[in-house]
Design brief:
The protein is mainly beta. About 0% of the residues lie in helices and about 40% in strands. A 9-stranded antiparallel beta sheet has the order 7-8-9-10-24-20-19-14-17, with no helix packed on it. Strands 4, 12, 13, 18, 21 and 22 form a 6-stranded antiparallel beta sheet that branches. A 3-stranded antiparallel beta sheet has the order 1-2-3, with no helix packed on it. InterPro entries: Aldose_1/G6P_1-epimerase (IPR008183), Gal_mutarotase_sf_dom (IPR011013), GH-type_carb-bd (IPR014718), LacX (IPR037481).
C-alpha cells in the first residue's frame, strides 16, 4: 500500500516510486530500482521541483500593482511555499488543491483554485495543473514547473557526457536575465539542430529561456545509462537552469509565462506572458516525466 502521512504521499507503479509532499504540492522523489532521478534538495539549492504560481520568474522590485495598490510578490510566487490540501490519495494517483485565502489575497488580490493531479504508471509520471477562476474578475496568472534532476544521473559519469535532445530543431534565439528580469534583446540560441550539449558554463548568465520553443518534448541523457524525457501540453515556454558553480542538478522547466521584461513598470494585468482566465473558466496544462535506462 502507499505510504500515508499528512505531509507526504508515495505512489507506486511497476518498478517506479514517487513521493509528493503537501508543502508546495512538490515532487521530491522519482526513482526506479536503481536510480533516483530527482535532485534531493542539497545545500546548493534547497528545493526539488517547486510549482511556480501565480508568477514565473520575478517582478520588478518584487511588486505586483493592481488598481492603484501595490502587493509584495517575490520570485516565482507563493504556491511553492504554501501547504496544499489532499483531495485524493491512491496507490498510483493523488491530487492536491490550493485555494485563495486571506493570506494569499494579501499578496495577490484574486480568487483562484489551483489543482495539482499526479498520476504514475510503469513508464513515468504525469502532472496536470488546473487553474480555475473562482472570482468575478479576469484572473491574470502564470504557472510553471521547476523540476530539478540529478546531473549527472549516475555518479561515475561526467556532466559533459549529458545532452538535451529536443523533439524538433530549435533554431530561434533565446532570452536571458539580468537581476532576475528579462533582457530586452534576444540572444543566439545554444542548440545545434536538436541537441544542446550540457556544461556548467551555459548557466553563467542564469537560466536559458526558450520563449519561442518549437518542441513539446526533450530528452535528457548521456550516451548510455539512465535517461529521462519531459513532454508538455499547454505550456508555451521552457526554462533550463543550473548554477554554474558545480551544483549537481539540472532543471528542465515547462512554463506558461516568464519574468517581467527589464523596464516594465505597469499594471500586473498588462505584464507580458500572462494568461487571462475569465470568471468561471479554467486553464489546464500538463507535463510528463518518462524515465528509463539504456
Amino acid at each position: 500500500m502507499s505510504a500515508m502521512s499528512d505531509d507526504t504521499h508515495s505512489l507506486r507503479s511497476g518498478g517506479l516510486t514517487v513521493t509528493i509532499k503537501a508543502h508546495g504540492a512538490e515532487l521530491c522523489s522519482l526513482k526506479d530500482n536503481v536510480t533516483e532521478f530527482v535532485w534531493q534538495a542539497g545545500p546548493e539549492w534547497p528545493r526539488h521541483a517547486p510549482l511556480l504560481f501565480p508568477i514565473v520568474g520575478r517582478l520588478a522590485g518584487d511588486e505586483l500593482r493592481h488598481r492603484g495598490k501595490t502587493y509584495r510578490m517575490t520570485q516565482h510566487g507563493f504556491a511553492r511555499d504554501s501547504r496544499f490540501a489532499w483531495t485524493e490519495r491512491g496507490e498510483s494517483r493523488c491530487t492536491l488543491v490550493l485555494e485563495d485565502s486571506e493570506a494569499t489575497r494579501a499578496l495577490y488580490p484574486f480568487a483562484f483554485r489551483l489543482t495539482a493531479a499526479y498520476a504514475l504508471d510503469a513508464a513515468g509520471l504525469d502532472l496536470t495543473l488546473t487553474i480555475a477562476n473562482t472570482g468575478k474578475e479576469t484572473l491574470p496568472a502564470s504557472i510553471g514547473g521547476h523540476p530539478a534532476f540529478n546531473w549527472p544521473l549516475q555518479p561515475e559519469s561526467a556532466k559533459e557526457d549529458y545532452a538535451l535532445t529536443f523533439a524538433k530543431v530549435e533554431s530561434s534565439p533565446v532570452r536571458r536575465l539580468d537581476g532576475g528580469l528579462l533582457r530586452a534583446a534576444a540572444e543566439p540560441g545554444p542548440v545545434k539542430g536538436t541537441q544542446l550539449t550540457l556544461s556548467e558554463s551555459l548557466f553563467v548568465d542564469d537560466a536559458i529561456i526558450f520563449d519561442r520553443i518549437e518542441s513539446n518534448a526533450v530528452r535528457y541523457a548521456a550516451s548510455s545509462g539512465p535517461w529521462l524525457k519531459i513532454s508538455w501540453r499547454g505550456f508555451r515556454e521552457l526554462g533550463v537552469w543550473s548554477k554554474p558553480s558545480g551544483a549537481p542538478f539540472l532543471c528542465i522547466e515547462p512554463w506558461r509565462g516568464y519574468a517581467s521584461p527589464a523596464g516594465f513598470d505597469g499594471e500586473f494585468t498588462d505584464k507580458p506572458g500572462l494568461m487571462h482566465i475569465a470568471p468561471c473558466a479554467e486553464e489546464r496544462l500538463s507535463f510528463r516525466i518518462e524515465v528509463g535506462s539504456s
